[in-house]
Amino acid sequence: MKIALVQMRSGIDPARNIDDVEAMVREAAASGARFIATPETTHLVQRDPSELAKLIKTPDIDPALVRFADLADGLNIDLLIGSMALTGPDGRAVNRSMLFGPEGQTRATYDKIHMFDVSLGAGENYRESDTYQPGSRAVTADLDAFKLGLTICYDLRFAALYRRLAKAGASVITVPSAFTQPTGRAHWEVLLRARAIETGSYILAPAQGGKHEDGRKTWGHSMVIDPWGEVIAHLDHDEPGILYAEIDPAKSVKARDRIPALLGDRDFEGP
Prior knowledge:
This protein is α/β, with parallel strands linked by helices.
C-alpha cells in the first residue's frame, strides 16, 4: 500500500496553510497514495495564546473541517490531518487529530494526551497546558487495510501509550509532530525507531520543519519506520515536501511473531 506524509512549514494564516496542504495532498493522491497524513498544527502555527484564541473555532463551525472532509471524499483517500488547534468545550484549545475517510466521513478524532511543558534553555520555553486541554483517551481506527493508532508529537516520549495501541491491534501508528530543532536533532529518530521496535508497528511521522512566521523553529525530517525498526523513507531536511513509502501491514504480524514482546507482560513488585 502506498502512503504519503506531508511535511509543512505552516504559518499564522489558516487560509494559506489550508491551501498549501490541499495542493500537496492532491499531488500525493495523484501519485497513488491511498493514505495521506499531515503534521501537527497543520492549519496554524501560532505560539501567542491570545492570537491563537482569535483564530481557532469550535469543530462545528470550523470551515477547515469541511474543506478537509471534501478533499478526502473527492480524492477517495483516507486523510489524517495530523492535528488542528480547535476551541474545546471549556474554552481552552484542544490539539486534535482528525481522520477523514474516502467518503468524507470522520473516522476518528484524537486529542493529544501529553502536554509539552518544557524548558530547553536559551529562552526556549513551552507550556502547552496553559493553552490546551489535554486529552484522556487512546484512540484506534479501523481502515480497510490496517488498524491505525493515533498519537501526536510529545506523546512519543510516553511508551505506554504506544504499547496500549499496539495491544489493541494497531499495526500502524501515526506521530504527526512539530518537534523543536534541539529535541529533534537529539531524539527524533531514536524515539521513533524505539516505538516501532517495542510495538512491532509501522511508525508514520509527518513533521513541521523550518523557521515559522511566529518565530518557532521545527525539525522536519519526516520519517517512516517499519515494524523491525528500520527507516524505510525519510526527508533529510526541514523544507516542505512529500514523503512516499510502501507499507505492508503483514510485516507487523511477522515482527510480533519473531519477538512477541506484547505478550510478555508480567506483574512485578517495587520499588
